[in-house]
User: What shape does this take?
Amino acid sequence: MKRINKKLIKYIFLLVIILLITILYIYFRTVREIVSVILISFILAYSLKPAYNSLILKSNLNRRIIAATLVIIVIGFFVVSFLLLIPPLFRESLNIENIMNSLEEAIQQILSKTDLKEIRIFQTLKEQFNEKLNIMVMSFSDRSLDYLIAFSENLVSLAIIPVVTYYFLADGPMIGSKIMLLFPVSKRTLIKSISSDIDKVLGKYILSQFILCIIIGVLSFISLIILKVQFPMLLSIFNGIINIIPYFGPIFGAIPAIMIALIDSPIKAVYTAVVFFVIQQVEGNILSPQITASTISMHPLTIIILLLIGEKIGGFIGMILAIPLGVVIKVLWEDIDYHLF
Amino acid sequence: MLRRKDFDYLKVFDIDGNLLGNVKDIIIDFYEKKILGFQLSRQGFKKNNTISSSSVISINESIIVENKSVCEGIPFSSIKDLNVIDRNGAIIGVVEDFLIDISDLSLKGLIISSGVIDKLFKGKQVVLCNQLILGEKDLLCFSRKNILFKSIPHNFIR
Assistant: This one.
């Protein structure tokens, strides 16, 4: 009886602490900022770890220098891409109104070629469609303005991220062993084996997704420039990022490109659709199996359900994060299965 | 005694240190009760990348092989999730895992589980391979003995 009571008390204590932390996270903005900074740096450091490890093996430099160089390269890449993107983005978004008008005109043209516009239903449909489009654009621009303001508010915490990432990279193993001290001795081997399993699977997945992302971005950029579609940079970056999502990604990424090509001419839209389809096929059949060397052994149905749940909870970012989280949970379950029996 | 999870994601190297692939599955000969080789992940454009167990020198944190001989046989994933029936036709459980003797890479037994949630209560059963017959859709366990080997949930600490 005494033993069961002690165990019960231990678990209740743990539960209370976890609840406390979640409540603090939800209700206090400062806690949320701190935790977000740590989380983002951790994810960045974790994604850079494969490159870091291979660089250490291949060169004789001090590990701190390598970590610092990697972080500077990545942060420099972000900063440079921001600087390169913001002016064209501004220019292009100022043109959004023109795009909207041309889109309306294009639809008007298509409709006028048939006699459908005489029927009342299609008229009301068209008006409603225009209205909805306007509302969407307005809310989108509202939200992006909010994001911009929030971004500049958090500039200080954002500047800390590179530093924290550098420390996570350079002193990662030491931090890891210090965290191990949180757990009771008897459980430590178990936790080490579970985290090394998670590490194997997750590391491969993250690295392969990054590489795929960049390749698709470059490919779509080249094809958009050849086809002379407007805003190639914006579209190709969007396509590259959204393609991380397994099944819906390619479709979502291609839709804006096709719509913008539609403004120029329907034929160009068809060409864009075909080219994007070819890119996606090349990625799916040749590049993806090669680069995702160890495919995650999850049934496609599970992946789709995970994507749906991720979208409900977190929108696009939720969809991107849902798969790695699912992979972690699956590895955890298999490990518990292994050790329990 | 090794289980399936001990082979997952193991890297396979040859003597010169080249990475041949990651282990994805094992290839067994159920009649002879031994492992014929391993199915590796894709290498280049070759889809079927196998390596024979006769060239394996050591199995530890990674597998080291002598030469790249290939092998053919049934992968374990085709036996996994098959039902196991006893002499009366009742289903004992579903094949979930295997037990392998590391010294000669022979298949010693199969681990049968009764269900995802059920196994937390009833545990998993271990059936020796010399009491099993592999069929098209099921496996038959013809043991007459009244001895059951079971593995019930236990503490994590070894």
User: Anything to note?
Assistant: Chain B touches chain A at residues 3, 5, 9, 22, 24, 41-42, 111, 119, 123-124, 151-154, 156-158 (CB under 8 Å). Chain B has a mean pLDDT of 85. The longest strand of chain B covers residues 19-29. The first helix of chain B runs from residue 4 to 7.
